[in-house]
Amino acid sequence: MPEMAGRLYAIVGPSGVGKDTLMRAAARRLPGLRLVRRVITRSAEAGGEDFESTSEADFARRLARGDFILHWQAHGLSYGIPADVLDFLEAGRPALFNGSRAMLAEAKAQFPALEAIHVTARPEILAARLAARGRESAEEIAARLARAKIGLPPGIKAIEIDNSGPLETAVEALVAALQPESAKRSMR
Ligand SMILES: Nc1ncnc2c1ncn2[C@@H]1O[C@H](COP(=O)(O)OP(=O)(O)OP(=O)(O)O)[C@@H](O)[C@H]1O
Ligand SMILES: O=P(O)(O)OC[C@H]1O[C@H](OP(=O)(O)O)[C@H](O)[C@@H]1O
Which of 17, 68, 156, 187 could form a disulfide with 13 if both were Cys (CB 3.0 to 4.6 A apart)? Predict the structure, then answer.
């Protein structure tokens, strides 16, 4: 197994760029990598990633109790990263979560060693992928495409991966980024 420290990684980028697909492919290549199962106030029937569905009221209760190490809102939904990810990091295992570009400054303030991985793809490719995935309505897809342009917050450094082309090319870049020495070399 490739060498990996107990580091926390956030994969970010516009909706439909392929974050979940890349995460699953990287986990198949790196058996020690922990993929974080997010808590989301989205219906369990939505499909897509493996997540824990909850209500707004339950999310708020858990947030107040300190159950999330990071949390944010986007697309009218609340997202939480469960605190049990700390156990994996403390045990020296790396963990990767699907994050939000908008919360990266806050996440880096809280976890200075956090590595951000920014995945991009050309706008027409995003539109085609969201339509083909079919998880959202046409109206929701339009809102996600409008948000695609926000980019990274000013001053935030990230490893850049273009997933406009074949999936395998981006998977290789992600696997390299998740291994500390290569990650350092490709930092901007
Ligand atoms: N390189 C690629 N080539 C072709 N299709 C791809 C590629 N990468 C991802 N896809 C497809 O694009 C769609 C969106 O991917 P995915 O759900 O992983 O995106 P995401 O970034 O996690 O989106 P969201 O943030 O909305 O959850 C999926 O149907 C996936 O199979
Ligand atoms: O636009 P920004 O702030 O980067 O991301 C906001 C949210 O959009 C995506 O949500 P989902 O996975 O489609 O529910 C990301 O995973 C993130 O949680």
Answer: 17
- Whether residue 73 is contained in a domain is answered as no
Q: How many CB atoms lie within 10 A of CB 5?
A: 11
Q: Does any domain span residue 170?
A: yes
Please tell me the total count of domains within the chain. 1
- For the chain, state the CA radius of gyration: 16
Pocket test for ligand 1, best of 20, 38, 144 (most atoms within 8 A of CB): 20
Residue range(s) defining the domain that contains residue 142: 8-36+93-185
Q: What's residue 130's pLDDT?
A: 94
Q: Is 163 in the pocket of ligand 2 (CB under 6 A)?
A: no
pTM of the model: 0.91
ipTM of the complex, rounded to two decimals: 0.95
CATH number at residue 152: 3.40.50.300
User: For the chain, what is the total number of helices (H) and then of strands (E)?
Assistant: 8, 9
Question: How many whole angstroms from its chain centre is CA 116?
Answer: 9
Task: Write out pLDDT tens, residues 7-55.
Answer: 999 999 998 999 999 999 999 999 999 999 999 999 988 777 899 999 9
Residue nearest atom 25 of ligand 1, based on CA coordinates? 15
Pocket residue to mutate for ligand 1, from 129, 130, 167, 168, most atoms within 8 A of Cβ: 129
Is residue 57 situated within a structural domain?
no
